[in-house]
Hints:
Layout: E1 8-12, H1 16-26, E2 31-35, H2 38-47, E3 52-56, H3 64-73, E4 81-86, H4 93-99, E5 104-107, H5 111-151, H6 161-178, E6 182-189, H7 192-198, H8 201-218, E7 224-229, E8 232-238, H9 242-257, E9 261-262, E10 267-268, E11 272-279, H10 289-306, E12 311-313
Parallel strand pairs: 1-2, 1-3, 3-4, 4-5, 11-12
Antiparallel strand pairs: 6-8, 6-11, 7-8, 9-10
3'-deoxy-guanosine-5'-triphosphate binds near residues 191 and 193.
Amino acid sequence: MTKEARHTVLVVEDSDVDAKILQKCLARAFDVIRCSTGEQALKMLKQQKIDVLVLDINLPGMSGIDVLRKVRSRARKDYLGVVVLTAGSESGTTELALSMGADGFGTKSDAVHHIVPLTHAALRVKAMTDELRDLNRKLRRANSRLTRLSNTDHLTGLYNMRYINQQLEQEFRRAKRYGTFFSVIMIDIDHFKTVNDDCDHLMGSFVISELGRQIRRVTRDVDFAGRYGGDEFIILLPETNAEGAHQVAMRLRDMVNHTIYDNGTNRKRITLSQGIHCFRPEIDRVNEGVQEALRSADAGLYEAKEGGRDRIVI
Ligand code: GH3
Ligand code: MG
Ligand code: MG
């Protein structure tokens, strides 16, 4: 076995004679270090990489059980294997040690024969636990990636319709419960078909993703911006009144109107139509909540289109 692959065992034993015997047995298979008290052991565990603790139950000061309790209650990046050694005469100690998370136990009188296999067994528990923890971490990461993907519009990176609808319901419940308000802005690009027709679909898609970026720039972290589909976007503004929502819509309008898209053959500007609805729980009817807010913001959007586009209607 190479030096790197060897595991480190810390023997916690106050008797020099017993410690020597244990170290001699273990040194055949492991790198062995030793200390005489529980307090020293806890310190060493913080300072260096140790794979298995061979722990005498009867120690001066802190007992082996106390050390075990401390070790298991601390969060560690990787698992520490623990073998507990008893004098053999204490009743109930082994049960207690196992229930507190020891991976193996033996009596000191038998230790010469059993300490190496016991340590190997503790290392197997460690390997399995570390692997499980690693898998768990990967699973959690994959799950959160999946959740993010299922809530996101792929072209803009904004939220998708499904997530925005969920969030709308939640904002309604919150606004009703706390008597706050929130606003919704519905946005549709004017004559977007002409971008596709006059330039190409690539430019069309670029315009949509750029608008996503601009919407992100005019909103705050607490707002929820989403693409409802096609050239339609929606912004939820928690605890924002109609005036605040109008300011956001104006900022977006300014930014969009100053953007020129140029693909070498065509130069294009776009404009937006925007409809705003502010939900006020004391006025809006409870049951009509979400649908009413959407209908009202949509009606504003329609009015903006009818009125000649490039405008905001509350
Ligand atoms: P209006 O001012 O009435 O909104 O006119 P409009 O041309 O924008 O019409 P509308 O909003 O009804 O339709 C949007 C068009 O946008 C429909 C489709 O051709 C195009 N479109 C929708 N999604 C995408 C996309 O992801 N990429 C591209 N390139 N075009 C899209
Ligand atoms: Mg449009
Ligand atoms: Mg549209």
